[in-house]
Amino acid sequence: MQAQDLMSKPVVTCRVSDPLHVVARLMWEHDCGAIPVVREDGRLAGMITDRDICMAAYMEGRPLHELRVDGVMSSPAIYARADQPVTEVEGLMAEHQIRRVPVVGADGRPIGLVSLNDLAIESTQPDTWMRHGLVQVAHTLAAVCRPHRLRRKAA
Fold it and tell me: Which of 54, 61, 84, 153 would you label with 9, given CA atoms 20 to 30 Å apart?
């Protein structure tokens, strides 16, 4: 199975120049906690999470409409290609301790998102491609959730 077979789509994106209140509204309207960030040409530039927005507001002590995406997004983004095997996407999640991976087309524009939720749902299907099902997802989840200080020691 490839990333394009499992990803959620369509993907909601925001621009690097957007103010944070616009992104918070997108997250609310689309019931999501992370959004790929694109440059003006539509190519992937980074990722922003609800936690990034919350911490920026707290640390800066300013309203969201005064803060921009490019000041708080994670960049460069860890991403998958549409034709990349899902097992490699799981590896990216575990290695970088991320819960969602944007999927890009050949032009570098986001076309979907693979999340831990997608993996968990797929792993419970009776005819799943995942031989180890929930066991593999549990290992990926454990790697993603490991405290960062423990990850550094293990490296």
Answer: 54
Domain spans, the chain: 3-154
Q: What is the mean pLDDT of residues 116-125?
A: 80
Cα atoms in the 13 Å half-sphere on the side-chain side of 37:
27
SS3 per residue for 44-71: EEEEEEHHHHHHHHHHHCCCHHHCEHHH
Whole-number Å distance between alpha carbons of 31 and 7: 16
Q: What is the fold, at CATH topology level, of the domain defined by 3-154?
A: CBS-domain (3.10.580)
Provide the CA 33 distance to its chain's centre, in angstroms.
9
Identify the burial level of 94 via C-beta atoms within 10 angstroms of its C-beta, where 0-12 means exposed, 13-18 middle and 19 or more buried.
middle
Per-residue pLDDT tens over the stretch 12-63 = 999 999 999 999 999 999 999 999 999 999 999 999 999 999 999 999 999 9
| Spatial contact of 132 and 119, defined as CB atoms under 8 Å apart | no
